[in-house]
Structure formats: structure tokens, C-alpha cells
Inverse folding.
């Protein structure tokens, strides 16, 4: 069954070992921030640093593993129709909108949406790490290291499938940052399937 995340909101749920999570961009050009914590010890969480280190590249796609801060594989990417995602930038937040966009009454952003969704699992806001930003297109200058957020390459119906290697608590958002989503806010769909 397909579930929908409304624009600028988030959800959290349990994903059992062996289950597949399909994240779908139903309209195109919409980012989804994804977090995963071990269901048995939420101090264990996805790690961009370890995942990038072990893959030896910053753009992860089909065939790559997402490692935890304890160097255990939490998720594997088994299908990917886009091939460009970000694992460098933190979830947007009220501070993001204040500092980058100059908002005086900022939205709580993906960080706030994830914190609210994860609260029933007793995961505190300070436990939220860098997310795997599904469909986010960040260009990196190989000489200067300068980064630029570009419109997502995802088109309507594009998707990524992750398989859980452990029992997990997953947080997902329909990202709230204008720059990340080419200036508009759209939903994200997801499905949980047994493998």
C-alpha cells in the first residue's frame, strides 16, 4: 500500500530486517530526507561519514550500503531510477531558513518534522544526524570544494528501494527547503514491502 507524506511534513515508522522501503517522487523534483536508527538501540544511526568513507565516493546509488556510526550496514540501496542523492547536507531547520534565507518567521523544516515524528520512539532532536537526502542534487566543485544545490533530477514516478539489514526506526520527510526542491513543495510517497 502506498502512503503519502504531505508537503513540508514528516513521518516515522518501524522497518523490519528484510523489508524493503520504496521512496517515490510522485510529482518530480522533490527531496525526501531519510533517517534510520537501530530499533534495538537508537544511539546507533546512519552515518554519512562512514558510508562515504567505505564507498570511496560521495554519491551513493544502487548497490551501495548505508552504514551506521558503529560501521554496521543498516540499509542497502537495491534499486535507483535517479542515481543522484545527497549525503553531505544536514536536514533543513528553522535555523537554516533564518541563516540562509533570512526568514524572520521560519518553518521548522525537516529537522523539526523529523524530531516531531521520532518523538514517540524517544529519539531526541540532538540525535538527528545528517540525513540521506533522497533525490537531492548537490554539485561539488572538485577543485575548490564549493557546493551548489541544483534542482533534483527526479521526475514523476522515480523511486529508490532500500532493504533493511537490521530492525530499524525510519524517519522520512517531504523536504521543506525551497532551494532543494526547485522552488516548490510537493509530496513524497513510500511503500513498505516484504522481500
Amino acid at each position: 500500500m502506498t502512503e503519502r507524506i504531505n508537503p513540508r511534513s514528516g513521518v516515522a515508522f518501524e522497518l523490519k530486517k528484510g523489508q524493503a522501503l520504496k521512496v517515490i517522487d510522485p510529482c518530480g523534483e522533490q527531496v525526501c530526507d531519510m533517517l534510520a536508527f537501530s530499533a534495538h538501540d537508537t544511539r546507533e544511526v546512519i552515518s554519512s561519514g562512514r558510508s562515504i568513507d567505505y564507498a570511496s565516493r560521495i554519491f551513493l546509488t544502487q548497490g551501495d550500503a548505508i552504514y551506521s556510526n558503529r560501521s554496521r550496514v543498516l540499509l542497502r540501496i537495491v534499486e535507483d531510477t535517479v542515481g543522484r542523492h545527497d549525503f553531505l547536507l544536514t536536514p533543513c531547520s528553522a535555523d537554516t531558513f533564518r541563516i540562509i534565507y533570512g526568514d524572520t518567521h521560519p518553518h521548522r523544516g525537516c529537522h523539526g518534522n523529523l524530531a516531531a515524528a521520532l518523538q514517540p520512539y524517544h529519539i531526541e532532536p540532538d540525535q538527528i544526524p545528517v540525513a540521506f537526502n533522497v533525490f537531492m542534487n548537490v554539485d561539488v566543485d572538485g577543485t575548490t570544494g564549493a557546493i551548489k544545490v541544483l534542482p533534483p533530477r527526479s521526475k514523476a514516478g522515480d523511486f529508490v528501494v532500500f532493504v533493511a539489514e537490521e530492525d530499524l526506526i525510519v524517519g522520512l520527510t517531504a523536504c521543506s527547503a525551497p532551494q532543494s526542491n526547485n522552488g516548490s513543495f510537493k509530496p513524497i510517497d513510500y511503500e513498505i514491502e516484504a522481500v
Summary: The chain is about 10% helix and 35% strand.
